[in-house]
């Protein structure tokens, strides 16, 4: 506790290491293009708009005309950004520095490949690639272009909160961690409105195996990636079950899944589940150790000590003069004093920094590849009803 630093009602002070992702000065804006203007693409653009000192929006691209119209309206009619229906045309712009890729998962690799080969920096949304083979090829391609940044959109773990939790894990503050429980639940169809029937598969691509990794790729990959990064590990055995149990509406990807990962290296089990049939838990992320439990949301987190640990923490720190810890009603204490910003804001800061300094982003191509392999193996276990195993060639 003395090392962590008790501060007010929050358990931990945010130290310099946690703030590295945002503690720097901008040089000049870089010109970016957005490829894919659906909900996520427009959401990222809205955050980019709030950082004019870092980014200049040069262009945006989508194969659907109505999305280009929506994006133009969002950016403002006076905006200088050009609209494209073919990403290759956008990439011909020599002044374009970087692209953001927010398209169906099945298209991530080919567009990222085109962008890297055209000399652009790349921010590709999670999951990084659709297949294991694509993940391996993208790592190899990035290695061939070391001066170009490739960052993957696991925005939540760019938050100072998640950096602090990693520090707690690294320092042994949680004790021996043996279980991780993760859920990302919702109560709804997960469908988007389709203006014309012939656009069903393009708009609701998440429902179809040809384009999507389903709930594992779109939701649970965030938590899967964090565990890989925070513990510097990967699962060795992957088991899973699932089904179309709620919405029998022609979808192909399951709306109810549960996956179990066995991490032999660290002696831990990870439980990852998602359903479209109940929203009670929503985003649930618990890391359980012999000394205590961390319970995380996307922007806040609580620490729950085990009984013996809590007794030790009751003592007032006479050196720092810190007051006695105030536990909430269910026995927890905030990890940070206040909620963090949207994770995308921190991720965009780090992307800019990585480009300017030619430094490795926290969520880099190798981290993205490991998570992509995990998702692919999880889906194989779920849909093929078999246990999958990590192979040496998946080590990045």
From TrEMBL:
Residue intervals of the Gfo/Idh/MocA-like oxidoreductase N-terminal domain: 30-154
Organism, scientific name: Olivibacter domesticus (Pseudosphingobacterium domesticum)
Source taxon at top rank: Bacteria
This protein's name: Predicted dehydrogenase
Molecular function, one GO term: nucleotide binding
PANTHER family, per the entry: BCDNA.GH03377, NADH-DEPENDENT DEHYDROGENASE-RELATED
Limits of the GFO/IDH/MocA-like oxidoreductase domain: 164-294
């Amino acid at each position: 506790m003395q090392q962590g630093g008790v501060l007010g009602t929050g358990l931990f002070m945010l130290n310099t290491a946690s703030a590295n992702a945002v503690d720097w000065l901008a040089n000049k804006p870089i010109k970016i293009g957005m490829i894919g203007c659906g909900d996520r693409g427009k959401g990222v653009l809205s955050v980019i708009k709030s950082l004019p000192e870092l980014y200049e929006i040069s262009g945006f691209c989508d194969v659907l005309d109505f999305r280009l119209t929506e994006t133009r309206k969002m950016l403002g009619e006076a905006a200088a950004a050009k609209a494209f229906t073919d990403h290759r045309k956008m990439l011909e712009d020599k002044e374009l520095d970087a692209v953001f890729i927010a398209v169906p998962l099945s298209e991530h690799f080919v567009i990222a490949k085109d962008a890297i080969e055209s000399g652009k920096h790349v921010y590709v949304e999670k999951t990084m690639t659709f297949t294991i083979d694509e993940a391996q090829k993208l790592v190899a391609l990035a290695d061939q272009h070391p001066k170009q940044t490739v960052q993957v959109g696991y925005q939540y773990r760019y938050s100072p909160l998640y950096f602090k939790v990693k520090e707690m894990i690294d320092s042994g503050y949680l004790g021996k961690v043996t279980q991780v429980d993760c859920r990302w639940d919702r109560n709804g169809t997960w469908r988007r409105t389709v203006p014309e029937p012939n656009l069903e598969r393009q708009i609701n691509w998440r429902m179809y195996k040809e384009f999507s990794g389903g709930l594992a790729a779109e939701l649970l990959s965030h938590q899967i990636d964090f565990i890989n990064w925070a513990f510097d590990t990967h699962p060795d055995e992957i088991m899973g079950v699932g089904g179309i149990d709620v919405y029998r509406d022609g979808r192909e990807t399951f709306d109810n899944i549960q996956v179990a990962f066995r991490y032999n290296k660290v002696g831990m089990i990870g439980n990852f589940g998602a359903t479209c049939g109940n929203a009670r838990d929503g985003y649930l992320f618990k890391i359980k150790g012999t000394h205590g439990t961390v319970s995380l949301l996307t922007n806040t987190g609580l620490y729950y000590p085990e009984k013996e640990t809590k007794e030790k923490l009751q003592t007032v720190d006479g050196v720092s003069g810190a007051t006695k810890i105030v536990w909430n009603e269910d026995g927890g204490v905030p990890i940070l004093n206040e909620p963090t910003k949207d994770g995308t804001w921190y991720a965009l800061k780090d992307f800019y920094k990585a480009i300017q300094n030619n430094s490795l982003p926290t969520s880099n191509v190798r981290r993205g590849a490991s998570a992509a392999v995990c998702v692919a193996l999880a889906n194989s276990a779920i849909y093929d009803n078999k246990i999958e195993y990590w192979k040496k060639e998946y080590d990045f």
